[in-house]
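Project outcomes to date are best conveyed with an example. Our students and postdoctoral researchers have been running inverse folding experiments weekly, and each run begins with a structure described purely in C-alpha cells. The record below, which covers 360 residues, was selected by the lab manager from last quarter's runs and is presented without edits.
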C-alpha cells in the first residue's frame, strides 16, 4: 500500500549480462515508467555467435544513450531515482563488468543504494509484469541460452531448484543445432521459423531423459542425433566436411528437433508442477518466445487444470525491465535497502539462484 506520505520508490535498472544492453525505470508498485533496449545481434552475426570482448565494449557505448532514452520516455529526472539495480551474474565476465562498473559508479556519484540482481531472478519474475500476472506459488520453467531449470517458487526470494540440464541449455541446443544446419545466429528464432514449413514426424529423434523419473534434462545427445541425420542427408562422412542439405530436408530436420525438445520441456515441466501441487506454471527466458512451446504447454496444462503464464514476448529475451522490476520488488520487500551504501562490486559470471530442493 502506498499513500501520498509514502509514495512508491523508483528503481533504475541495468542489464548487460550477454548481448543485450537494457535500461529501465520501475516503481516499487510494479510500474515500468520507461525502458530502452539495444541488441547486439547484428554485430555478432558475422561471427556466428557472441564474441565476449566485442559485447563488453558495445555495452559501454550503449549504456548512457539508453539511459537518456529511458528518462526521456519516463518524463522524470535522474534526481528522482531512489535506488539502482544491476545484473551482477550469471553472464559473460566482461559484459557484467561493463554494466556493473557503470551502475555502481553512478550510484556512488548520486549517493544511491545498489541492489544486485541475479539475472535468472529477473527472468523468473518477468511474467509478473504482464497484464494477467500469476500469483505465488508457482512452478517456473526457466529456458534461456545459458540455463534450463525447473524451479519451485513459493514467493519473492523463495526459490527451490527442482531440476536442470546436465549439459546444454535448451537455448544453447537450439543455437548449436541451427548453426549445424547452416542457419544464422541467433539460431533459436531462425530454427523455429524454418520448422514452420517442416514435418516434425519425419525424423525420429531421441527425447533424452524423458522417463528418468526426475526433473533433469540433457540435450547434447539430441544435438548429436541431429548432426548424424544432417551428415546422412548431406552424404558426408565427417562433421568437418561441408554439408549441403536441401531446404525441405532442413525444414523437416528443424521441425523434428523442435518437436523433440518441446515434448521434453512440456512433459517435465508439467510433471514438476503437478508434483509441487501448483496450479500455476510460469515460463521465462528466451526459449519462452518459442511458439510451439507456448502452444504445447498451454494445451497440456489445460487438460490438467493448470494455468500457464508467459512474459510478454518482448520480455522473454534479456531486457532491462525485468532487472529494474526484480530490484523494485526486492526494495518493496526490504525498504531498509534504501540505507545501504555498499559499493563493493562482486560480479558473478557463474552463480546459482536456488539450492536444489531435494524433494523431487
Ligand atoms: O534469455 P535469453 O535472452 O538470454 C540468456 O539469458 O541466455 O535467451 C536467449 C536464447 C537463445 O539461445 C535464443 O536462441 C533463444 O533464447 N530463443 C529461442 C527463441 N527466441 C529466442 N529459442 C527458440 N525459439 C525462439 N523463438
Ligand atoms: Zn537471459
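After processing, the design step wrote out the following sequence:
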Amino acid at each position: 500500500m502506498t499513500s501520498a506520505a509514502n509514495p512508491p520508490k523508483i528503481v533504475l535498472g541495468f542489464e548487460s549480462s550477454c548481448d543485450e544492453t537494457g535500461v529501465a525505470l520501475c516503481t516499487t508498485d510494479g510500474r515500468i515508467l520507461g525502458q530502452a533496449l539495444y541488441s547486439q545481434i547484428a554485430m555478432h552475426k558475422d561471427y556466428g555467435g557472441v564474441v565476449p570482448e566485442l559485447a563488453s565494449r558495445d555495452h559501454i557505448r550503449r549504456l548512457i544513450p539508453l539511459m537518456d532514452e529511458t528518462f526521456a520516455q519516463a518524463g522524470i529526472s535522474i534526481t528522482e531515482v531512489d535506488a539502482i539495480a544491476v545484473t551482477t551474474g550469471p553472464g559473460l565476465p566482461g559484459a557484467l563488468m561493463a554494466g556493473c562498473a557503470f551502475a555502481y559508479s553512478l550510484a556512488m556519484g548520486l549517493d544511491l543504494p545498489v541492489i544486485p540482481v541475479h539475472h535468472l531472478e529477473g527472468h523468473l519474475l518477468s511474467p509478473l509484469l504482464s497484464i494477467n500476472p500469476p500469483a505465488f506459488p508457482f512452478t517456473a520453467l526457466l529456458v534461456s541460452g545459458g540455463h534450463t531449470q525447473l524451479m519451485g517458487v513459493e514467493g519473492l526470494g523463495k526459490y527451490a531448484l527442482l531440476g536442470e540440464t546436465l549439459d546444454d541449455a535448451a537455448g544453447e541446443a537450439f543455437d548449436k543445432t541451427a548453426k549445424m544446419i547452416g542457419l544464422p545466429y541467433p539460431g533459436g528464432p531462425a530454427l523455429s521459423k524454418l520448422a514452420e514449413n517442416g514435418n516434425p514426424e519425419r525424423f525420429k529423434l531421441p527425447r533424452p531423459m524423458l522417463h528418468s523419473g526426475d526433473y533433469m534434462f540433457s540435450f547434447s545427445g539430441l544435438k548429436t542425433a541431429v548432426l548424424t541425420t544432417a551428415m546422412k542427408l548431406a552424404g558426408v562422412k565427417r562433421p568437418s566436411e561441408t554439408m549441403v542439405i536441401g531446404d525441405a530436408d532442413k525444414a523437416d530436420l528443424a521441425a523434428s528437433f523442435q518437436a523433440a525438445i518441446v515434448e521434453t520441456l512440456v512433459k517435465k515441466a508439467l510433471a514438476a508442477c503437478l508434483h509441487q501441487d501448483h496450479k500455476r506454471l510460469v515460463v521465462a527466458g528466451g526459449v519462452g518466445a518459442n511458439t510451439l512451446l507456448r502452444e504445447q504447454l498451454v494445451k497440456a496444462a489445460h487438460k490438467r487444470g493448470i494455468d500457464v503464464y508467459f512474459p510478454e514476448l518482448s520480455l522473454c529475451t534479456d531486457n532491462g525491465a525485468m532487472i529494474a522490476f526484480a530490484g523494485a520488488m526486492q526494495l518493496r520487500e526490504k525498504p531498509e535497502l534504501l540505507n545501504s551504501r555498499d559499493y563493493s562490486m562482486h560480479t558473478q559470471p557463474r552463480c546459482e539462484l536456488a539450492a536444489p530442493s531435494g524433494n523431487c
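The chain has a mean pLDDT of 95. Residues 18, 144-146, 171, 174-175, 186-189, 192, 285-287, 289-290, 317-318 surround KG4 (ligand 1) (CB under 6 Å). The training component of this project remains on track.
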